[in-house]
Amino acid sequence: MNDPYKVLGVSPDASDDEVKKAYRALARKYHPDKYRDSDLADLASEKMKEVNAAYEEIQKMRANGGSSSSSSGQGGYQYRTSNTSSNPTYAEVRRLINANNVDEAEKILLGVVEGDRNGEWHFLYGCVHLRRGHYVDAQRCFDIACSIEPYNNEYRAAQNELRRRAGGYGNGYNTSGGGGCSGCDVCSGLMCADCCCECMGGDLISCC
Description:
Elements: H1 4-8, H2 16-30, H3 41-63, H4 88-98, H5 102-110, H6 119-131, H7 135-148, H8 153-164, H9 183-199
């Protein structure tokens, strides 16, 4: 998972009020209503999802005494690749992704010459995006991988699973285990509503 403090642009030593202030500023900046009917709607929705996840993660970390509440990718959904590949470079990338070392995996992938980027390359880069909570980019990579190798069951399974989880937050993705909204979605929605309310002089959530 990306460092949630970096996502919000604050130091790990920042006070709770400073964290909340940074979150609210980003929530106002990327709120979906500002980008309705805009070409940037998808990007803003994805960024808002990342900001919400980072804020929630910091809240959980501080409640747990500073330790991360989860080792999973942002939003709680990550696709685990198989451990084998005929290409030793990609086999190492798979190992790194499954170990959640996505920075090193991405570094290796970006070192592959563009002309050699086959279906497996796009699939693995999609997995990197997925671990970071970049669902739109992950879906795009999975789609390309499947178009290159339409009969690859592993790529198709990842594509279908991500599409199955596509849900109701703007044009983003619902990462709960099933239909409806997860507790995370409810909290995120309440926090956004609180920001909007406070902009108009009210306070929806008194503890925030």
